[in-house]
Structure formats: C-alpha cells, structure tokens
Amino acid sequence: MIELNKLSVSHRQGYEQRTVVHDVSLEVQAGECFGLVGPSGCGKSSLLWVMAGLNLNWQGGMQLAGHTIKPGKPFSGQLRQDVQMVFQDPYASLHPRHRLRRTLAEPLKLLKKTDINPRIDEGFRHVGLDPALAERYPHQLSGGQRQRVAIVRALLLEPKILLLDEPTSALDMSVQAEILNLLNGLKQQDGLTMVLVSHDPDVIDHMCDRAVRMDRGHIVG
Length: 221
What we know:
This protein is α/β, with parallel strands linked by helices. It has a single domain (31-45, 75-219), classed as Rossmann fold. It has helices at 44-51, 78-82, 100-110, 116-126, 143-155, 173-190, 201-207, and strands at residues 2-13, 16-28, 33-37, 58-64, 67-69, 83-86, 161-165, 193-198, 210-215, 218-219. A hairpin with a 2-residue loop joins strand 1 (2-13) and strand 2. Helix 4 packs across helix 5 and helix 5 (143-155) runs parallel beside helix 6. The longest helix has 18 residues, at 173-190. Belongs to the ABC transporter superfamily. Drug exporter-2 (TC 3.A.1.117) family. Belongs to the ABC transporter superfamily. Glutathione importer (TC 3.A.1.5.11) family. It comes from Erwinia typographi.
C-alpha cells in the first residue's frame, strides 16, 4: 500500500534547503498499522507530511495506494481521497467559525456526493458521537470529541491510507486511551492502512503491527 525508496525531505530556510530526512526506504502492507517513533525533531512528522502531499520538497521514490508520485507534484484526483491525515491539533482540520456539519460537508459537495447529511450522521455514530454534535462549533466540544470529529472528517472520503500525526499527544491520558482504542477498532472494521507518528513507544506498541525508530532524519532501528 505504501512504498518509499531512498526518500529525502527538505525544508526551505530563506534561500537555502535543509535536508531533514535522509534516504528513507520502507514498505507498509495493506491493512497494517505502521509506526514511526523517535524524539521531537527527528524527521518523522516531516516524512508523514510528504506522504500526505503537504510538503512537495522531497526526492526519491514514493508509491501510495497504487499511485506513483513524482517529487514536486501536488496530489490530485483519486489520490487526494485515498490518502487522508489526522493532525495532532484537530483545529488544523476544523474551521473555528463554521458549524461542524458545514465543515464536514464541503469536501463531499466538491466530490458531488449524495446523501451528505446521512453520511455525516453515520460518521459521527461510527466514532461513538451523537450526530446532534454536528450542529455545534469546534470550541463547544471537548478535546477528545474534536479529535473524533477530525477522524470523521478523514474517514468521510473513504481513504485507503490514514496518516496519524501524534493524534493523542494533546489529550489527557484517559482520553488518549479512548482515541487509540477507537483507531484500533476502525482499523479492524474498515481495513484501513495506517501510519502513526509518535514520540511515545507505549502508544506505538499499543497500536502498531510494525514500527521503525528515527533519529536525526535517519531510520536507526
């Protein structure tokens, strides 16, 4: 489902490029949860953002869900649906001034999907939320509820690959466990392929079938 071949990632700093991920090669099988673990600044989130199409400054080879991706080329068409991301801060994908239903409906309208409201209601039920919460604004929900809505937003597009960037690190311990158990259940029910970034080895052990450790932009174990 995912194949990276000697992939390197750069960030722009003024007029210069700084390489933050060096020659990473890995494969993730369909239906697998694969972990990237390591300290802050090791390059794991930078690698994830490339797989999400959010950073085009990379070199090497990448295949996602049967699509061969070229460096510098934005994601488009089916690929934009096949790969979805859940961020550490759910505000990154929820408009603070729009009711949740409006935010969740917009990508479905662009894709000319039908039965949008029933899809959203079912999405809320799928993650254990009352569909009535869709009429609220993000600030009216708890942190755990917002992260569940962010997961709904990603799943509504029926992706093949779900990328998770520290999805529980901003939450209380008890809520962390709820979200991780929810993701485990969704993986089993929906057959999702997941890549999980975390600095916490316990989270990786709980969620992942396999994992690699990163340090200073390299896979080290």
